[in-house]
């Protein structure tokens, strides 16, 4: 038996068959500083509710998988020290040993599938890191998208990554990468990466229909919906490029590796931009939550 606790709000939504949207917790513990992390988590949940769906923030607390966090649980997680960053490889081990961990995109997809939640909103997925040809650092998020049937709404992949290689791996693994409302693949803080997205859709209905058809065709895996950051909130790619280069050089000089790379880079860029990168990150996650709520409602209207 998997030790799962549903929050009262999520349990009621499941009973009433209301549309649900999963939200991750690594962005809270490893992606943003306190207190903006908790404030953002709350406002992202509010966006999902305003969009007519119910938010289910996911984390492992003392060996139980929580689907939906209470306000007190969210506050505690946002200030906790030494929380594990869970992916597919260590998820079950954390449950088995009574640990506490935040779920990455990969682990949140697994939890969403277990809870019957079809849509998940985050900031940006992990991907192929620059220099992967020597480091082999490729996020487990990509392999998860290839095998777990959840539609993930993100502002593309983080611009700290090697985006052409990230798109190549997604293509090889058969993951539909759908830019929402534009032709270009977005680059997290910027609306365009300068790379064309493999697919484009302009409505939540189409995205829902594609998910249903993939299931009908017995195709495993999810869909990546790449939703560009709103124009008013973006940081142009050329402004950010030198900041990213400097952050990568610093990570290399300090020998930062594996799971520590993404949190290190995000923190470095936050300080180097005087917080502008965080403001953009918050805006894009809220924007993704709004679209995810609409996709979840569209899926409810198109029963499997
Ligand atoms: N989106 C954000 N901030 C984040 C993340 C997503 O706006 O910190 C997290 C997600 O949990 C994602 C992880 O799975 O970054 C990627 O980490 P890595 O590159 O180590 O796979």
TrEMBL record:
Highest taxon listed in the record's lineage: Bacteria
InterPro entries (UniProt xref): Indigdn_synthA-like, PsuG
Q: Name one GO molecular function term.
A: hydrolase activity, acting on glycosyl bonds
Please give the SUPFAM superfamilies that the UniProt record associates with this protein.
Indigoidine synthase A-like
Positions contributing to substrate binding: 85, 105, 139-141
The catalytic site is made up of: 24, 158
Catalytic activity line of the entry: D-ribose 5-phosphate + uracil = psi-UMP + H2O
Residues annotated as binding Mn(2+) are: 137
Q: What EC number(s) does the entry state?
A: 4.2.1.70
Q: Which UniProt keywords apply?
A: Glycosidase, Hydrolase, Lyase, Manganese, Metal-binding
EC class (word): lyase
Q: How is the cofactor bound?
A: Binds 1 Mn(2+) ion per subunit.
Cofactor(s) listed: Mn(2+)
Quaternary structure annotation from Swiss-Prot or TrEMBL: Homotrimer.
Q: Which HAMAP family match?
A: PsiMP_glycosidase
Q: Which family does the record assign?
A: Belongs to the pseudouridine-5'-phosphate glycosidase family.
User: Could you tell me what this protein does?
Assistant: Catalyzes the reversible cleavage of pseudouridine 5'-phosphate (PsiMP) to ribose 5-phosphate and uracil. Functions biologically in the cleavage direction, as part of a pseudouridine degradation pathway.
- Please report the name of this protein according to its UniProt entry: Pseudouridine-5'-phosphate glycosidase
- Organism the protein comes from: Sinisalibacter lacisalsi
Its organism's taxonomic lineage begins at: Bacteria, Pseudomonadati, Pseudomonadota, Alphaproteobacteria, Rhodobacterales
